[in-house]
Amino acid sequence: MKQTVKFDIYLGTYNRPVLLEYTLQSLCNQTYKNFIVHLVDHGSIPPVNVDKLPKDLDIRFTRYENNFVDQHGCDIQEKVLGQLEGTHFINFCDDDILLPNALEIAANIIYYNPSVDNLSLGNVRFNHDTKKPERSSRELSDFDKNITIFDSQKAGVAFCSSWGIGPEVNFYTPLNAHSSASICSNDLLLKTKNCQGNIFVKPFGDVGFVGTLFHTKHGYFLNSPLGIIGYSRNQVSNMSVNYNRFKWEREIPFLQYSPLKACTFKNMGVESHLKVIYGNKLDKAWDISLRPHFFTAHLEEILSDDPWTEQTENDIEEAVPQFEESLMRYMNLTSNVAKLSVNDWIKKCKDMIAEKKKEDSDLPKKNEDTVLFNNVLDYSDYLMQNYWES
How far is the C-alpha of 177 from the C-alpha of 52, rounded, in Å? Predict the structure, then answer.
């Protein structure tokens, strides 16, 4: 096959040298070699040792002396977009890996189907804390190895709706798609950036890729586990866990469109999706009011605060009136009934959270069908031998 498909792989890292080694090794193992790695060290201590980087990879290395992951990570990623040399882009993380045949399969699909400018690959999760995959070997049978072609614009609407924005949309979107296992043509990125402003939008940078769906006719999803997505409770960027919501406070200045200012994972996600909607000038065509689905998830995070603070009370007080309005709008409740419904829901939610706190949430779930692996590369070998060769 002529190597006309060339990948630009953005790879940011911060203080995870062992995981980065796995990630880079997976790229060394690729059967398809036509790619560039844009490796950015966001102020790791100690710094990434350039002398120990794989010599057989084409790596463009940049280091920032301070940790910009939290405050300016999106800005750095945008700079990398101005340095692309290939035809297609992958936004990667330093705890993810690709199976050895991943890029070759993707390149073949793109080469023989030039209209494919937005391709997502199936993936599984690997927990670096437990050193176990999050998916059992039995569950791998869910992957059918087929390519799904879907209306990309309807999928974009569905992704936004899934966060509680506007009326509920029932449209199939690839549940296994993930930004670290998604490939976008550089031409589509440029087209989206010219309209949307930024590809990496704050607070959730990779949400900006949803915008690419509004600038192409079809999306493509290969339902096969070609990517292994790292998942760790100690992950710096993992702040969706209850009790950790105030880690998002640094992002409050970037709230522009959400009607709420409380820092929860749900609210920051809604803000990022609203930025995509407004950036692509879709706010006039859609009803982008927030559904009750959003408010219950938002408030559940707030009600989980431990310790309970004055800020907790303020954030509840901010959300309750808008929650009531949402119930009136979407469920046709009267004002009094909506008020009673919200009060009742809050009481039940508090009781549920109190009950959960009695349980030992740190105990790993038993999964008799999951094999213990020493590292993520072992799991990659397992997938190759037990899935792809089966």
Answer: 32
Q: Based on the fold, state whether residues 92 and 187 are members of the same structural domain.
A: yes
Q: Where are the alpha helices (DSSP H) in 51-151?
A: 73-81, 102-112
The answer on 258 and 225 residing in a single domain is no
- Report whether 325 contacts 282 (CB < 8 A): no
Residues 206, 264, single domain; the answer is: no
Provide the total of helices (H) and of strands (E) in the chain, helices listed first: 10, 10
Longest CA pairwise span in the chain (Å)? 68
User: Are both 152 and 104 inside the same structural domain?
Assistant: yes
Task: Give me the tens of pLDDT residue by residue for the chain, a chain 390 residues long.
Answer: 445 999 999 999 988 999 999 999 999 999 999 999 999 998 888 998 999 999 999 999 988 887 655 555 687 788 888 889 999 999 998 999 999 999 999 999 999 999 999 999 999 999 988 888 988 878 888 888 999 999 999 999 999 999 999 999 988 777 667 778 899 999 999 999 999 999 999 888 889 999 999 999 999 999 999 999 998 754 444 444 555 788 778 878 889 999 999 999 999 999 999 999 999 999 998 999 999 999 999 999 999 998 899 999 999 999 999 999 999 999 999 999 999 999 999 999 999 998 887 775 555 555 556 678 889 999 999 999 888 775
Domain that holds residue 290: 245-358
Measured distance CA(41)–CA(16) in Å, rounded? 10
- pTM value is 0.89
CA–CA separation, 224 and 86 (whole Å): 25
Cite the DSSP H helix spans in 227-309: 265-279, 292-303
